[in-house]
Amino acid sequence: VKSEGPKLVPFFKATCVYFVLWLPTSSPSWFSALIKCLPIFCLWVFLLAHGINFLVSHRSASRILAGLIFSAVGDAFLIWQEQGYFIHGLLMFAITHILYSSAFGMKPLDLKAGLLMGVVSSCCYAFLYSYLSGPFTYLVAVYIALIGFMGWRAVAGVQLCNDLWTWTKLSACVGAMLFMVSDLTIALNEFCFPVPYSRLIIMATYYAAQMLIALSAVETRDEEDFRKRS
């Protein structure tokens, strides 16, 4: 973790710039889109700093990078959500969750974690359902299913009882949970009722989630196994 910290300094600085400037959402512009996306751009650089060979040889890392790219596009769309681009942002983040799920993989399966995430996702949708209308009735259902699936695959990777876990998998798990909190806050604020300090909650959990998921791409297990064998 210590070795990765210095590579994340640009991300922390960019995040501070976003919260210090705190540009009003009522006047969207390309400058506000740049400031909002800048921390995600820094996470691109964080992964690219590990080398192209690393990304090519680790499919999970390359898929997380692709997810971060779609996230940045989604962030840009959401800057103009009042102008009708909310669905476009929703689509970009849906693709992001598919890529993250693919990066986390299907092993171990952990059906208990899947059942738990299914129940949580169903309860969230059941609560939102009465507030939804038109195409959002179906789009939100699909989106919740995708992020719930992503959360399941992240949680399944953390096998604490069997001592089969690494800090990268734990990072993915916490990141996925924070992503779900961020998106749930968006849904409540967008469709149900105004959430106090919604923007602060959404962006703080979102940036933390993306950082942790990016960190999860840095796999150390192979290096540790090599050291044990030698």
From TrEMBL:
This is lysoplasmalogenase. It catalyses: a 1-O-(1Z-alkenyl)-sn-glycero-3-phosphocholine + H2O = a 2,3-saturated aldehyde + sn-glycerol 3-phosphocholine; a 1-O-(1Z-alkenyl)-sn-glycero-3-phosphoethanolamine + H2O = a 2,3-saturated aldehyde + sn-glycero-3-phosphoethanolamine. PANTHER family: GH04784P (PTHR31885), LYSOPLASMALOGENASE-LIKE PROTEIN TMEM86A (PTHR31885:SF9). It holds the Pfam family YhhN. GO terms for molecular function: alkenylglycerophosphocholine hydrolase activity. It comes from the Eukaryota. It is found in: Membrane. Its main location: membrane. It is a multi-pass membrane protein.
